[in-house]
Amino acid sequence: MGAVVIWGLSYIVMKAATTDYPQLLFQFWRYAAVTAIFAAAFHRTLRLIPAHVWKIGLLRLGLANFVLGIFSIYAVQHTTPTRVVVINGLIIGVVPLLRWIHERIKPARHEGWAIGIALFAIALLFEPQDRFVQLGDVLAFVGMIGYAYSIVLTNRLLATDRASVMQVSFLGVAGCAAYFTVAAVIYVWFSPGGLEIGALLTQPKTIAGIAYMILFVSLAANLLQVIGQRRLPPVTVSILFCLEPAVTAALDYSLLGNPPSVRVTLCGIVLIGATVVAALQNGRRGVAKERQDLGI
User: Fold this and answer.
1) Contacts of 231 by beta carbon, 8 Å cutoff, 6+ apart
2) Residues whose CB is less than 8 angstroms from the CB of residue 263 and which lie 6 or more positions away in sequence, other chains included
3) In angstroms, rounded to a whole number, what is the distance separating the alpha carbons of residues 109 and 197?
4) What DSSP state is assigned to residue 292?
5) Rounded to an integer, what distance in angstroms lies between the CA atom of residue 175 and that of residue 63?
6) Tens of pLDDT along 48-96?
7) Which distant-in-sequence residues (6+ apart) come within 8 Å of 90 by Cβ?
């Protein structure tokens, strides 16, 4: 739940911090810095990562995080943060589908009920006049696919490949950093401003945004999500992240003074009910699991 709160605020931060700075370079500096921090602080446990886990983590989990990172930051420029997280809520239907495709695992009965309740809650957020798909909606939807795939891959690395929390967290950000490095090289090749270092140093708002994304999103929220996925199944995790619209709306009200609509309020209440239903059969199971260290 802590990761949900941090992610809910992140879309507001990204939109504000990239008003006068290239979105792609914003993400590049963020992931490059996080990768360096992980490598310096946890280099001992990183040496123990098997070759096949490196491959899955860097190439596939990194790509999933890159898709989420690149499309979501451009999506918030073409629509509102609340609308982006509403579309992210569709992971409740995509995660079980991806899990069935990759692992042939169907949702349990109580998870199926929770999925239905969550989809009803997400449907409440779409206004009757929303008949046309906007560019921001398309970008957010593609980012959501990466979001859902990262949840499925994280579960596979933790449960099947027995990677530690720290190893999975590092591979996710390092792989994403590698893709953003390639994208940044292409950007610099065609852009006369290069990496825009001078512009970055003159924009404290952008620097503060990068710092927030590094400390709270890429480090704190990333670790919280992976730790949560060690104890919870992917479907429950996806339902918890469906709470983002309600969290973002609450932050939008407390920070910017924009009161939430009746639809957003109802959505938050219904999603809490879906989370309770999903957790009914998983609570005891999660407590019974062996508590493993972070792999430090």
Assistant:
1) 286, 289
2) 124, 125, 127
3) 53
4) -
5) 7
6) 999 999 999 999 999 999 999 999 999 888 877 777 877 777 777 788 8
7) 122, 141, 144
DSSP state of 162: -
Query: Which string of DSSP letters, residue by residue, matches 101-151?
Result: HHH--PPPHHHHHHHHHHHHHHHHTS-TT--S--HHHHHHHHHHHHHHHHH
Report the length, in residues, of the chain.
296
Q: Is residue 242 classed as helix, strand or coil in its secondary structure?
A: coil
How far is 169 from 221, CA to CA, in rounded Å?
10
For 33, other C-beta atoms within 10 Å of its C-beta total 19
- C-alpha distances out from residue 5 to 137, 155, 220, 266, Å: 22, 21, 11, 18
Do 37 and 219 form a contact (C-beta atoms < 8 A)?
yes
Q: Measured between alpha carbons, how far is 197 from 28 in angstroms, rounded to an integer?
A: 12
If you count DSSP H runs as helices and E runs as strands, how many of each does the chain have, helices first?
A: 17, 0
Rounded to 10 degrees, what is the CA torsion of 237, 101, 149, 88?
-60
Distances (CA, A) of 133 to 69, 99, 122, 130: 21, 27, 16, 8
**pLDDT tens figures, 262-295:** 776 777 677 667 767 766 655 444 444 434 434 4
Q: DSSP letters of 33-74? A: HHHHHHHHHSHHHHTT--HHHHHIIIIIIHHHHHHHHHHHHH
Phi first, then psi: what are they for 175, rounded to 5°? -65, -40
Using only the alpha carbons of the chain, give its radius of gyration.
Answer: 19
CA end-to-end span of the chain, whole Å?
A: 23
